[in-house]
């Protein structure tokens, strides 16, 4: 939709361009930003013109995914044995393939919706968010902690998500994926990602919850942030999360 | 940018989305459906790749080549994909079609997984079967006239993006209206300061309650304006729901109008609100229209928040229950549902050269809007012209006057000030949820008694309907809802108590089925329980009790005097047999271990025409060039009546359909038409068209072959009485998974008693579309309110069925002939919706042993229902 209050659309060419003036926000794909009214937003700063490689294998085996990597590009990244997991996660998004061509991984994570499938995937793989700080520095934080609550991240004013690093250990560990929603291809109500001996719950909780596969029942019993919205009641989500988490653990154990 | 190979050198605004920019540049094939990336109506190819243009920043596309549906082919030179959509009849209203054509072109002809590929393309009309046919290259059209699957005349224009919808007009010089919404459920405006807004350069007019005519009316439109209560002001100093319009700004652009809205200062005296329909009638509850009078506003009991009611009994229900061998009872609840027509409400108004107010609007009822606009604005109706282009979906939602009043007032006020520019108001998708009427939520209590043979001895019904803050359609929906649902069954002792109440929530209004679906959900569920108690089949309990030819149609008083059923038109037994047999035959296996299987069916009856008058006039003109022109008042919004009218005239005059043109939905096109609601496009307007065609045939015969020297015009009319009834039966086989609450539809079968079928493919499409909408209501759709505020405001949060949510429905027709309809036809647009929810609930009951009482039967509700039965499952 049109953002009537926006007076400028500024392509960023260097890190210096990311210093925002009042009312400016950064835009990745723009697929969410342009999908809801944005009162108070007067300027857009385009991240996609920074020319970040969508993904790059780092020397230590880490897979770096740029914040501006599109969902479609993410599916095509060198996942090795996790290619199916990446595809399942992308399929878990309500958005159509046409939107996945434009929507970015960073945008999906920064939106911090419980059903954000990129949060599910990357938190599930123990990935770390690489955040550019306004002083020119950088800080790192697990994605599972970076997303703090519904529509809340740890980003402070002036900070920009640069990339998400998937550790080499996760790229070779066995993984499993389960999801459900109120309608077959609807917005996710429960997503469970297993990797190695961790089980990460998203969509059914207000923030990512990382559980120990070897102590699943106690972990599930301790969850205190079941989510309740138009995409599923909390009691049902808790019950189905339990079912799917057990399936994931069973699959990982094979 | 290049748009469809045409260079464009305009510069988009920084916050403008690509769709708006394209439309500003005249690329009107690109539609605005959801404006949020969810529906796909705005799909275009951007440098060859498909995108949803509403969520693409236009600034990013300035160096790109954009291809719309119009760039893929033209009506005379359709692309293969466009030809496939025409051949398959892969559209109804057609508003989503250009987006489908673009997307299908991008993915190529071989689509392996259409459910996933097209999950971002919503269609509200078809139920997707015909779209699947188009994608697979199957043809569904056949040549001929009446009885043949003639394609819609507009088809080639629709698939190539050339068919103009309401607001597909040049953008030049247009003023735009935006509405300020109430933040309160109930409040009195004590002060409103518009000076800062009015002073903003580019703002031409700000309207508040101080500008509104002192006229009470209803947004709901009927042939008689007395059918709905006069409880609404154009802008009021009391707001009665969150989202109600408080003020309107008219400015050079939408963005400017929005900026001005933010500058309006309103002071409210917040008043107590009642949000719950059960509480609305309790003593001391806040009153929604307590200051209004029964006499002046036609509100049944304003001091009890009751807008309409019926209480009555025939026979002796207590005695009937006492004498019964078997008794069942229960209370059922239905939710708020939105129509989700892909074209939002919108209108553009101007003053024509003759000084008349002209309003082009997305309406099912142009004549009724014209008459009420004249009433509200205090002008002669001859000074108002209302017309509709092809309408992008209706479903009853456009039997309301929701935008035309503001547009009309703004046009007249500006004209008086010497400003003669067109004024446009296009509602947002969000406003379609927060401002526009939905389906009435109802609480339906049913008690049935029967003798040992399963013959009903008593039927008691108690209904509470929540009409929200205004009473548009409250009475009609309540009375209709309790009418054919109850009259379907012969029973000597019946009692109906039904009330529609006001609450301080978004209003409800006309919705496909007009109340029947809600009440039938209760009655048909109870009847299923009765059959189980008696140990007879669901079909058999209905055969034993259904109304028969010669019976009166009885609810809770004397029978109707203009409703009749003849032997040749009695299709219910056939429908029951067809569905029961199809369910018996189905062998679709369970999806896996742990699933429970069941089947169920339900029946519905509907009058073919609404009561108390439905009028149509039509002309059929023999032109000098050998073509024939139909002038008719009813609108085309995917109902297919335009196709049927052309077929009827071709048949009557013995000419090919290609020589027949239709001019419709314009108060200048004919003298009067009540409008396209109550499924009357074929049976009322169609009968008027047939009468005019027969008159023309006589006039031509009298000329004995003498050549025409001027066009020869014949007139016809029909007045909607006497009326007949039509029947529908739906059946499902389902699998239910108790651990997750998932319900899968293994088989869906629908039998319709439509009389003589005018156009088999179109009728099948109407049935499939009605079933699809009802499956949405039954399983997944719900407008949710928290503290009176709508929280489901986008298609992301409100689940209109996607292609992958719907099973194929087998559609079967009863072989009947209706003496009252044109060439033996009956109406069949709303009816297929009505039996679906109880059929599904009955199947779930059969599978699980637990009776659902609430819609929608979402997975979380079904899971909880089964948990409560057996917490250890």
From TrEMBL, chain A:
Transmembrane segments: none annotated. One of its GO terms (molecular function) is FAD binding. InterPro entries: Diverse_Substr_Oxidored, FAD-bd_PCMH, FAD-bd_PCMH-like_sf, FAD-bd_PCMH_sub2, Mopterin_DH_FAD-bd. Gene3D superfamilies: 3.30.465.10. This is CO or xanthine dehydrogenase, FAD-binding subunit. The lineage of its organism: Bacteria, Bacillati, Actinomycetota, Actinomycetes, Propionibacteriales.
Automatic annotation (TrEMBL), chain B:
Gene3D superfamilies: 3.10.20.30, [2Fe-2S]-binding domain, Aldehyde oxidase/xanthine dehydrogenase, a/b hammerhead, Aldehyde oxidase/xanthine dehydrogenase, molybdopterin binding domain. PROSITE patterns: 2FE2S_FER_1, 2FE2S_FER_2. InterPro entries: 2Fe-2S-bd, 2Fe-2S-bd_dom_sf, 2Fe-2S_ferredoxin-like_sf, 2Fe-2S_ferredoxin-type, 2Fe2S_fd_BS, Ald_Oxase/Xan_DH_a/b, Ald_Oxase/Xan_DH_a/b_sf, Ald_Oxase/xanthine_DH-like. It comes from the Bacteria. The keyword Iron applies. Keywords: Iron, Metal-binding, Molybdenum, Oxidoreductase. One of its GO terms (molecular function) is 2 iron, 2 sulfur cluster binding. Pfam families: Ald_Xan_dh_C, Fer2, Fer2_2, MoCoBD_1, MoCoBD_2. Belongs to the xanthine dehydrogenase family. PANTHER family: ALDEHYDE OXIDASE 1-RELATED (PTHR11908:SF132), XANTHINE DEHYDROGENASE (PTHR11908). This is CO or xanthine dehydrogenase, Mo-binding subunit. It comes from Nocardioides lianchengensis.
